[in-house]
Design brief:
Blueprint lengths: L2 H9 L29 E2 L10 E4 L5 E11 L2 E6 L5 E5 L3 E6 L7 E2 L23 E7 L3 H4 L1 E13 L4 E14 L2 E10 L9 E5 L4 E6 L19 E6 L20 E4 L3 E7 L6 E6 L5 E5 L36 E3 L5 E6 L12 E5 L5 E2 L3 E7 L5 E7 L7 E6 L5 E5 L4 E8 L3
Parallel strand pairs: 1-22
Antiparallel strand pairs: 2-3, 3-27, 4-5, 5-6, 6-7, 8-9, 9-10, 10-11, 12-13, 13-14, 14-15, 16-17, 17-18, 18-19, 20-21, 21-23, 23-24, 25-26, 26-27
Amino acid sequence: MVKFLEEYWGRKTLRGAALGVTAALASVMPAPAYSSDVKEVGVPSQLPGPGPFILASAEEARVKVEIIASGLSHAYSLAFLPDGDALIVERGLRLRLLRGATGADPKLIAQPIANIPTYVDLPHLHPDDVLGIQAIALDPDFATNRQIFFTYNKPIGLDPATQRITAATVLARGELDGMRLTKLKDLLQGEAVVGAGGSRILFGRGNEVFVSVGALSVGDIDSAQRTDNIYGKILRISRDGPIPPDNPFVKTAGARPEIWTYGHRDPLGLAMDPRSGRILASEHGPQGGDELNEIRPGGNYGWPRFTFGTDYGGSSLPANPVGAGIQAPLMFWSPSVAPNGIAFYTGEILPEWKNNLFVTSARRGQINGTGALLRIVLNDNLQEVRQEILLDSLHQRLKDVGQGPDGKLYVVTDEDQSVVMRIGPAAP
Protein backbone atom coordinates (compact mmCIF):
# COMPACT_ATOMS: atom_id res chain seq x y z
CA MET A 1 0.00 0.00 0.00
CA VAL A 2 1.28 3.46 -0.85
CA LYS A 3 2.79 5.20 2.17
CA PHE A 4 0.50 8.26 2.21
CA LEU A 5 -2.59 6.03 2.21
CA GLU A 6 -1.16 3.95 5.04
CA GLU A 7 -0.55 7.11 7.04
CA TYR A 8 -4.02 8.44 6.26
CA TRP A 9 -5.83 5.24 7.20
CA GLY A 10 -3.67 4.97 10.30
CA ARG A 11 -4.57 8.39 11.66
CA LYS A 12 -8.33 8.48 11.09
CA THR A 13 -11.35 6.39 10.16
CA LEU A 14 -12.35 6.65 6.51
CA ARG A 15 -16.00 5.99 7.17
CA GLY A 16 -17.51 9.25 8.38
CA ALA A 17 -14.25 11.24 8.10
CA ALA A 18 -14.44 14.99 8.68
CA LEU A 19 -15.75 17.01 5.75
CA GLY A 20 -13.14 19.75 5.64
CA VAL A 21 -12.39 20.15 1.94
CA THR A 22 -14.55 22.29 -0.29
CA ALA A 23 -17.57 20.47 -1.63
CA ALA A 24 -16.82 21.72 -5.11
CA LEU A 25 -14.34 18.86 -5.52
CA ALA A 26 -17.22 16.45 -5.50
CA SER A 27 -18.93 18.04 -8.47
CA VAL A 28 -16.10 17.91 -10.99
CA MET A 29 -16.40 15.22 -13.60
CA PRO A 30 -13.26 13.53 -14.94
CA ALA A 31 -11.60 15.36 -17.84
CA PRO A 32 -13.14 14.33 -21.16
CA ALA A 33 -11.36 12.13 -23.65
CA TYR A 34 -9.23 14.08 -26.13
CA SER A 35 -9.97 17.22 -24.07
CA SER A 36 -8.63 20.68 -24.79
CA ASP A 37 -8.89 23.96 -22.98
CA VAL A 38 -12.31 25.34 -23.79
CA LYS A 39 -13.68 28.61 -22.47
CA GLU A 40 -16.58 28.19 -20.07
CA VAL A 41 -19.58 30.35 -20.92
CA GLY A 42 -23.12 30.56 -19.66
CA VAL A 43 -25.83 32.38 -17.80
CA PRO A 44 -26.00 32.58 -13.99
CA SER A 45 -27.19 29.37 -12.34
CA GLN A 46 -29.59 31.32 -10.17
CA LEU A 47 -33.15 30.39 -9.35
CA PRO A 48 -35.65 33.13 -10.29
CA GLY A 49 -37.10 33.06 -6.79
CA PRO A 50 -38.21 30.75 -3.96
CA GLY A 51 -41.19 29.36 -5.87
CA PRO A 52 -43.52 27.68 -6.24
CA PHE A 53 -43.45 28.01 -10.01
CA ILE A 54 -46.44 27.29 -12.25
CA LEU A 55 -45.32 25.98 -15.61
CA ALA A 56 -47.11 25.00 -18.80
CA SER A 57 -46.69 21.59 -20.37
CA ALA A 58 -47.94 20.28 -23.69
CA GLU A 59 -49.97 17.45 -22.17
CA GLU A 60 -50.33 18.31 -18.48
CA ALA A 61 -51.52 21.85 -19.04
CA ARG A 62 -50.32 23.26 -15.71
CA VAL A 63 -47.83 21.83 -13.22
CA LYS A 64 -46.54 23.20 -9.95
CA VAL A 65 -42.84 23.09 -9.10
CA GLU A 66 -41.99 23.49 -5.41
CA ILE A 67 -38.55 23.82 -3.84
CA ILE A 68 -38.83 21.53 -0.82
CA ALA A 69 -35.19 21.47 0.38
CA SER A 70 -32.09 23.60 -0.09
CA GLY A 71 -28.60 23.88 1.33
CA LEU A 72 -27.31 20.67 -0.20
CA SER A 73 -23.94 20.48 -1.94
CA HIS A 74 -23.82 18.97 -5.43
CA ALA A 75 -26.63 16.45 -5.06
CA TYR A 76 -26.19 13.41 -7.29
CA SER A 77 -28.72 10.70 -6.47
CA LEU A 78 -32.01 10.32 -4.60
CA ALA A 79 -34.11 7.40 -3.44
CA PHE A 80 -37.42 7.24 -1.58
CA LEU A 81 -38.18 5.26 1.54
CA PRO A 82 -41.64 3.68 1.73
CA ASP A 83 -42.77 6.17 4.40
CA GLY A 84 -42.15 9.20 2.16
CA ASP A 85 -38.71 10.14 3.49
CA ALA A 86 -35.96 10.49 0.88
CA LEU A 87 -32.23 9.77 0.86
CA ILE A 88 -30.04 12.18 -1.08
CA VAL A 89 -26.38 11.76 -2.02
CA GLU A 90 -24.12 14.79 -1.88
CA ARG A 91 -21.64 13.40 -4.34
CA GLY A 92 -18.39 12.28 -2.78
CA LEU A 93 -19.39 13.76 0.54
CA ARG A 94 -22.27 12.20 2.45
CA LEU A 95 -25.75 10.72 2.48
CA ARG A 96 -28.57 12.94 3.80
CA LEU A 97 -32.11 12.27 4.97
CA LEU A 98 -34.99 14.48 3.84
CA ARG A 99 -37.65 13.79 6.44
CA GLY A 100 -41.21 13.89 5.15
CA ALA A 101 -40.14 14.59 1.57
CA THR A 102 -43.62 13.87 0.23
CA GLY A 103 -45.36 15.81 2.99
CA ALA A 104 -46.36 19.42 3.56
CA ASP A 105 -43.24 20.39 5.52
CA PRO A 106 -40.13 18.44 4.46
CA LYS A 107 -37.08 18.80 6.73
CA LEU A 108 -33.48 18.18 5.69
CA ILE A 109 -31.76 16.52 8.64
CA ALA A 110 -28.42 18.17 9.37
CA GLN A 111 -26.75 15.00 10.62
CA PRO A 112 -25.66 12.76 7.72
CA ILE A 113 -26.23 9.03 7.62
CA ALA A 114 -23.25 7.48 9.42
CA ASN A 115 -20.77 4.88 8.12
CA ILE A 116 -20.66 6.15 4.52
CA PRO A 117 -17.13 5.92 3.00
CA THR A 118 -15.70 9.45 2.86
CA TYR A 119 -12.30 10.58 1.59
CA VAL A 120 -12.54 14.36 1.18
CA ASP A 121 -9.46 15.13 3.28
CA LEU A 122 -7.24 12.58 1.58
CA PRO A 123 -3.81 14.03 0.72
CA HIS A 124 -2.84 14.37 -2.96
CA LEU A 125 -6.50 14.76 -3.94
CA HIS A 126 -6.64 16.14 -7.50
CA PRO A 127 -9.56 18.44 -8.43
CA ASP A 128 -10.65 15.95 -11.11
CA ASP A 129 -10.76 12.99 -8.73
CA VAL A 130 -14.25 12.24 -7.36
CA LEU A 131 -13.87 9.80 -4.49
CA GLY A 132 -16.53 8.58 -2.11
CA ILE A 133 -20.23 7.90 -2.51
CA GLN A 134 -21.88 8.16 -5.93
CA ALA A 135 -25.27 6.49 -6.43
CA ILE A 136 -27.84 4.85 -4.16
CA ALA A 137 -30.83 2.56 -4.68
CA LEU A 138 -33.16 0.77 -2.31
CA ASP A 139 -33.40 -3.00 -2.49
CA PRO A 140 -36.83 -3.95 -3.88
CA ASP A 141 -37.42 -5.78 -0.57
CA PHE A 142 -36.32 -2.80 1.53
CA ALA A 143 -39.53 -2.85 3.60
CA THR A 144 -38.44 -6.18 5.09
CA ASN A 145 -34.63 -6.24 4.79
CA ARG A 146 -33.76 -2.50 5.11
CA GLN A 147 -30.98 -2.94 2.53
CA ILE A 148 -29.53 -0.05 0.54
CA PHE A 149 -27.13 -0.48 -2.38
CA PHE A 150 -24.63 2.26 -3.16
CA THR A 151 -21.57 2.86 -5.31
CA TYR A 152 -18.43 4.63 -4.21
CA ASN A 153 -14.98 5.35 -5.59
CA LYS A 154 -12.41 3.90 -3.23
CA PRO A 155 -8.77 5.15 -3.13
CA ILE A 156 -6.19 2.43 -3.72
CA GLY A 157 -2.78 4.01 -4.23
CA LEU A 158 -0.79 6.65 -6.09
CA ASP A 159 -0.04 6.55 -9.82
CA PRO A 160 3.68 7.29 -10.30
CA ALA A 161 3.24 8.72 -13.80
CA THR A 162 0.56 11.31 -12.96
CA GLN A 163 1.03 11.58 -9.19
CA ARG A 164 -2.73 11.18 -8.90
CA ILE A 165 -4.67 8.83 -6.68
CA THR A 166 -5.76 5.55 -8.19
CA ALA A 167 -9.27 4.50 -7.24
CA ALA A 168 -11.67 1.63 -7.86
CA THR A 169 -15.43 1.89 -8.35
CA VAL A 170 -17.19 -0.34 -5.82
CA LEU A 171 -20.77 -1.57 -5.48
CA ALA A 172 -21.63 -2.03 -1.81
CA ARG A 173 -24.61 -2.89 0.35
CA GLY A 174 -25.67 -2.00 3.88
CA GLU A 175 -28.70 -2.01 6.15
CA LEU A 176 -30.29 1.27 7.18
CA ASP A 177 -30.63 1.37 10.97
CA GLY A 178 -31.97 4.75 12.00
CA MET A 179 -29.32 7.29 11.00
CA ARG A 180 -26.57 4.85 10.13
CA LEU A 181 -25.70 2.02 7.77
CA THR A 182 -24.72 -1.31 9.28
CA LYS A 183 -23.55 -4.69 7.96
CA LEU A 184 -21.61 -3.03 5.14
CA LYS A 185 -20.38 -5.35 2.42
CA ASP A 186 -18.57 -4.69 -0.86
CA LEU A 187 -20.20 -6.79 -3.59
CA LEU A 188 -18.11 -5.78 -6.61
CA GLN A 189 -14.86 -3.86 -7.03
CA GLY A 190 -13.25 -2.54 -10.19
CA GLU A 191 -9.63 -2.15 -11.13
CA ALA A 192 -7.45 0.58 -9.60
CA VAL A 193 -7.36 3.41 -12.16
CA VAL A 194 -6.77 7.13 -12.49
CA GLY A 195 -9.96 9.06 -13.18
CA ALA A 196 -12.74 6.78 -11.91
CA GLY A 197 -16.01 8.63 -12.56
CA GLY A 198 -19.75 8.34 -12.16
CA SER A 199 -22.02 5.33 -11.76
CA ARG A 200 -25.71 4.41 -11.36
CA ILE A 201 -27.70 1.47 -9.98
CA LEU A 202 -30.89 -0.20 -11.25
CA PHE A 203 -32.71 -3.30 -10.03
CA GLY A 204 -34.15 -5.66 -12.60
CA ARG A 205 -37.39 -7.59 -12.37
CA GLY A 206 -35.67 -10.65 -10.92
CA ASN A 207 -32.83 -11.02 -8.44
CA GLU A 208 -30.50 -8.91 -10.53
CA VAL A 209 -28.90 -5.51 -10.09
CA PHE A 210 -27.37 -3.44 -12.90
CA VAL A 211 -24.54 -0.96 -12.38
CA SER A 212 -23.38 1.52 -15.00
CA VAL A 213 -19.78 2.74 -14.74
CA GLY A 214 -18.23 5.61 -16.68
CA ALA A 215 -15.27 5.17 -19.01
CA LEU A 216 -11.77 6.26 -18.08
CA SER A 217 -10.64 9.74 -19.04
CA VAL A 218 -6.94 9.44 -18.15
CA GLY A 219 -4.37 7.27 -19.84
CA ASP A 220 -6.53 4.40 -21.13
CA ILE A 221 -9.31 5.80 -23.29
CA ASP A 222 -9.80 2.53 -25.15
CA SER A 223 -10.57 0.63 -21.95
CA ALA A 224 -14.31 0.88 -22.72
CA GLN A 225 -13.71 -1.45 -25.67
CA ARG A 226 -11.95 -4.10 -23.59
CA THR A 227 -13.67 -6.61 -21.36
CA ASP A 228 -10.83 -6.95 -18.84
CA ASN A 229 -12.11 -4.05 -16.73
CA ILE A 230 -15.42 -2.58 -15.52
CA TYR A 231 -15.03 0.96 -16.90
CA GLY A 232 -17.24 2.13 -19.74
CA LYS A 233 -19.53 -0.81 -18.98
CA ILE A 234 -22.92 -1.78 -17.62
CA LEU A 235 -22.56 -4.64 -15.17
CA ARG A 236 -25.02 -7.24 -13.91
CA ILE A 237 -24.79 -9.30 -10.75
CA SER A 238 -27.26 -10.92 -8.39
CA ARG A 239 -28.38 -8.96 -5.35
CA ASP A 240 -26.33 -11.25 -3.12
CA GLY A 241 -23.19 -10.78 -5.21
CA PRO A 242 -22.75 -13.92 -7.36
CA ILE A 243 -22.49 -13.61 -11.13
CA PRO A 244 -25.60 -14.79 -13.04
CA PRO A 245 -24.59 -17.76 -15.21
CA ASP A 246 -26.25 -16.26 -18.30
CA ASN A 247 -24.12 -13.11 -18.34
CA PRO A 248 -22.67 -12.77 -21.87
CA PHE A 249 -18.97 -12.86 -20.92
CA VAL A 250 -19.10 -15.30 -18.04
CA LYS A 251 -17.23 -17.95 -20.06
CA THR A 252 -14.87 -15.57 -21.90
CA ALA A 253 -11.26 -15.99 -20.82
CA GLY A 254 -9.82 -12.81 -19.32
CA ALA A 255 -13.17 -10.97 -19.25
CA ARG A 256 -14.89 -9.56 -16.19
CA PRO A 257 -17.89 -11.90 -15.85
CA GLU A 258 -20.05 -9.06 -14.46
CA ILE A 259 -20.08 -7.26 -17.83
CA TRP A 260 -23.52 -6.97 -19.47
CA THR A 261 -22.65 -4.35 -22.14
CA TYR A 262 -19.54 -2.38 -23.08
CA GLY A 263 -18.32 0.54 -25.20
CA HIS A 264 -20.02 3.24 -23.11
CA ARG A 265 -18.65 6.71 -22.35
CA ASP A 266 -20.55 8.01 -19.31
CA PRO A 267 -23.83 6.12 -18.82
CA LEU A 268 -25.16 8.30 -15.99
CA GLY A 269 -28.80 7.24 -16.09
CA LEU A 270 -30.55 3.85 -15.92
CA ALA A 271 -34.28 3.09 -16.05
CA MET A 272 -36.61 0.23 -16.91
CA ASP A 273 -39.55 0.66 -19.29
CA PRO A 274 -42.58 -0.23 -17.13
CA ARG A 275 -44.44 -1.69 -20.09
CA SER A 276 -41.84 -4.07 -21.48
CA GLY A 277 -39.10 -4.38 -18.86
CA ARG A 278 -36.51 -3.21 -21.39
CA ILE A 279 -33.63 -1.23 -19.90
CA LEU A 280 -32.56 2.20 -21.12
CA ALA A 281 -29.42 4.19 -20.35
CA SER A 282 -28.64 7.84 -20.89
CA GLU A 283 -25.06 8.48 -21.92
CA HIS A 284 -22.85 11.54 -21.96
CA GLY A 285 -21.17 11.87 -25.33
CA PRO A 286 -18.39 14.32 -26.01
CA GLN A 287 -19.43 17.62 -27.64
CA GLY A 288 -22.69 16.53 -29.24
CA GLY A 289 -23.56 12.88 -29.46
CA ASP A 290 -25.28 12.39 -26.11
CA GLU A 291 -27.28 9.19 -26.39
CA LEU A 292 -30.28 7.25 -25.16
CA ASN A 293 -29.58 3.54 -25.54
CA GLU A 294 -31.50 0.33 -25.11
CA ILE A 295 -29.25 -2.00 -23.15
CA ARG A 296 -28.97 -5.42 -24.78
CA PRO A 297 -26.79 -8.19 -23.33
CA GLY A 298 -23.36 -8.41 -24.91
CA GLY A 299 -23.86 -5.21 -26.90
CA ASN A 300 -20.98 -2.94 -27.93
CA TYR A 301 -22.04 0.73 -27.89
CA GLY A 302 -18.99 2.02 -29.70
CA TRP A 303 -17.06 4.42 -27.47
CA PRO A 304 -14.47 5.69 -28.28
CA ARG A 305 -14.29 4.23 -31.79
CA PHE A 306 -17.77 5.30 -32.86
CA THR A 307 -19.66 8.40 -31.73
CA PHE A 308 -22.13 10.98 -32.99
CA GLY A 309 -20.12 13.75 -31.30
CA THR A 310 -16.95 15.74 -31.80
CA ASP A 311 -14.31 16.49 -29.23
CA TYR A 312 -14.51 19.46 -26.90
CA GLY A 313 -13.08 22.44 -28.74
CA GLY A 314 -13.98 21.03 -32.14
CA SER A 315 -11.23 18.54 -32.91
CA SER A 316 -12.27 15.41 -34.72
CA LEU A 317 -13.39 12.06 -33.38
CA PRO A 318 -14.23 8.98 -35.47
CA ALA A 319 -16.13 10.03 -38.59
CA ASN A 320 -18.53 7.08 -38.55
CA PRO A 321 -21.07 7.20 -35.72
CA VAL A 322 -22.01 3.52 -36.00
CA GLY A 323 -20.10 0.58 -37.43
CA ALA A 324 -20.52 -3.16 -37.92
CA GLY A 325 -21.42 -4.86 -34.66
CA ILE A 326 -22.13 -1.57 -32.89
CA GLN A 327 -25.47 -0.94 -31.16
CA ALA A 328 -26.99 2.28 -32.53
CA PRO A 329 -28.67 4.59 -30.01
CA LEU A 330 -32.43 4.92 -29.80
CA MET A 331 -31.89 8.66 -30.08
CA PHE A 332 -29.09 11.17 -29.71
CA TRP A 333 -28.84 14.85 -28.91
CA SER A 334 -26.84 17.45 -30.78
CA PRO A 335 -26.18 19.96 -29.36
CA SER A 336 -25.42 18.10 -26.16
CA VAL A 337 -27.84 18.09 -23.22
CA ALA A 338 -25.45 16.48 -20.69
CA PRO A 339 -27.95 13.75 -19.67
CA ASN A 340 -27.84 12.39 -16.15
CA GLY A 341 -30.39 10.44 -14.08
CA ILE A 342 -33.52 9.18 -15.86
CA ALA A 343 -36.87 7.75 -14.74
CA PHE A 344 -40.14 6.56 -16.21
CA TYR A 345 -43.28 8.08 -14.72
CA THR A 346 -45.82 5.47 -13.63
CA GLY A 347 -48.06 7.48 -11.30
CA GLU A 348 -51.70 8.49 -11.52
CA ILE A 349 -51.81 12.14 -10.46
CA LEU A 350 -50.15 13.31 -13.70
CA PRO A 351 -52.03 10.95 -16.03
CA GLU A 352 -50.98 12.59 -19.31
CA TRP A 353 -47.34 11.88 -18.42
CA LYS A 354 -47.82 8.19 -17.69
CA ASN A 355 -45.03 5.99 -19.14
CA ASN A 356 -43.14 9.08 -20.30
CA LEU A 357 -39.36 9.03 -19.81
CA PHE A 358 -37.84 11.94 -17.89
CA VAL A 359 -34.18 12.82 -18.42
CA THR A 360 -32.26 15.30 -16.28
CA SER A 361 -30.04 17.63 -18.28
CA ALA A 362 -27.12 19.56 -16.78
CA ARG A 363 -26.73 22.04 -19.64
CA ARG A 364 -27.44 22.42 -23.34
CA GLY A 365 -24.91 23.11 -26.08
CA GLN A 366 -22.00 23.52 -23.63
CA ILE A 367 -23.64 26.63 -22.12
CA ASN A 368 -23.81 26.70 -18.34
CA GLY A 369 -27.08 27.62 -16.67
CA THR A 370 -29.21 25.93 -19.32
CA GLY A 371 -30.10 22.66 -17.58
CA ALA A 372 -33.59 21.23 -17.96
CA LEU A 373 -35.87 18.27 -17.46
CA LEU A 374 -36.59 16.53 -20.75
CA ARG A 375 -39.91 14.74 -21.13
CA ILE A 376 -39.82 12.09 -23.86
CA VAL A 377 -42.86 10.26 -25.20
CA LEU A 378 -41.86 6.84 -26.53
CA ASN A 379 -44.00 4.39 -28.45
CA ASP A 380 -44.17 0.68 -27.71
CA ASN A 381 -41.00 0.15 -29.75
CA LEU A 382 -39.12 2.74 -27.65
CA GLN A 383 -39.04 5.16 -30.57
CA GLU A 384 -39.30 8.87 -29.88
CA VAL A 385 -42.74 10.35 -30.56
CA ARG A 386 -42.09 13.83 -29.14
CA GLN A 387 -39.91 15.61 -26.65
CA GLU A 388 -40.56 18.56 -24.36
CA ILE A 389 -38.11 20.79 -22.46
CA LEU A 390 -39.18 21.62 -18.89
CA LEU A 391 -37.65 23.65 -16.02
CA ASP A 392 -35.11 25.36 -18.30
CA SER A 393 -36.28 28.75 -17.00
CA LEU A 394 -34.90 27.82 -13.55
CA HIS A 395 -31.27 27.82 -14.84
CA GLN A 396 -30.14 24.79 -12.83
CA ARG A 397 -27.91 21.79 -13.47
CA LEU A 398 -30.31 18.86 -13.04
CA LYS A 399 -28.74 15.63 -11.82
CA ASP A 400 -31.34 13.03 -10.89
CA VAL A 401 -35.08 12.45 -11.09
CA GLY A 402 -37.35 9.98 -9.35
CA GLN A 403 -40.97 9.30 -8.58
CA GLY A 404 -42.10 9.54 -4.98
CA PRO A 405 -44.61 7.22 -3.32
CA ASP A 406 -47.10 10.10 -3.63
CA GLY A 407 -46.98 9.88 -7.44
CA LYS A 408 -45.16 13.19 -7.87
CA LEU A 409 -41.80 13.71 -9.58
CA TYR A 410 -38.75 14.83 -7.62
CA VAL A 411 -35.60 16.39 -9.07
CA VAL A 412 -32.24 17.25 -7.49
CA THR A 413 -29.83 19.86 -8.83
CA ASP A 414 -26.04 19.77 -9.04
CA GLU A 415 -24.98 23.17 -7.72
CA ASP A 416 -22.89 24.64 -4.91
CA GLN A 417 -26.29 25.21 -3.29
CA SER A 418 -28.34 22.28 -4.55
CA VAL A 419 -32.10 22.06 -4.12
CA VAL A 420 -34.77 19.37 -4.24
CA MET A 421 -37.79 20.17 -6.40
CA ARG A 422 -41.20 18.51 -6.34
CA ILE A 423 -43.39 18.48 -9.46
CA GLY A 424 -47.13 17.86 -9.25
CA PRO A 425 -50.41 19.11 -10.67
CA ALA A 426 -51.29 22.76 -10.27
CA ALA A 427 -54.71 23.77 -9.02
CA PRO A 428 -57.03 24.78 -11.86
